[in-house]
Amino acid sequence: MKKLILLLITATFLSCGSSKVVRQSQKTIKGDWTLNNITYSESGNYNVMLLNDVSKACFEGSTWSFIPNNNTGIYTINNENCTTGDRNFVFTIQEIDEQTGLYDFLLKPTDAKNKSVTNQGFRLELSQLSDFDMQWQQTVSVDGKPFTINMNFSKL
Question: Does residue 100 or residue 87 have the better pLDDT?
């Protein structure tokens, strides 16, 4: 009887937690990734500072490590022409629509103890995720028109 009650409590707890899509995406995102390239929806030269940190050129080739069991991670800027080094962050994956499985990726830069200095975060669309590739999209406004930044990752 005790085992049955424990099983029911566990099942109730799990059903109230993350959706199946979110749990699967957390499992898939776990590990190390490289940010291969960043593209824009419009042609032209743009001076974009991503995550209020560094430019597109600095982010390309950066390495990212995701630890979903505590929703933390580290990205490392490797380009020697930039401010190199590790940056800590916390992240959350939120499902937007159960029918389509679309979800948002919320990223908040932190210090090494996972405390936010600026209390600022970034909402990105996790537009594609597989065992090998991932794409984030962020839509901003340029001259009153939508402008999409695509960040393309591959798993190491």
Answer: 87
Q: Residue 48: inside a domain, yes or no? A: yes
Can you say how many angstroms the Cα of residue 52 is from the centroid of all Cα atoms in its chain? 15
Q: Which domain holds residue 78?
A: 15-155
Domain with 67 in it: what CATH number? 2.40.128.280
User: If you compute the radius of gyration of the chain from its CA atoms, what whole number of angstroms results?
Assistant: 18
Amino acid at 134: M
Please tell me the pTM assigned to this model.
0.81
In terms of C-beta density within 10 A (0-12 exposed, 13-18 middle, 19 or more buried), how is residue 102 classed? middle
| Long-range pairs for 74-83: beta carbons < 8 A, 24 or more residues apart | 75/35, 77/53, 81/57, 82/54, 82/55, 82/57, 82/58, 83/54, 83/58
Structurally, how many domains does the chain consist of?
A: 1
Q: Which helix (H) or strand (E) holds 8?
A: helix 2-16
Contacts with 129 (C-beta within 8 Å, 6 or more apart), sequence order: 25, 28, 29, 135
Among the residue ranges 51-55, 69-73, 103-107, the one predicted with the least confidence is 103-107
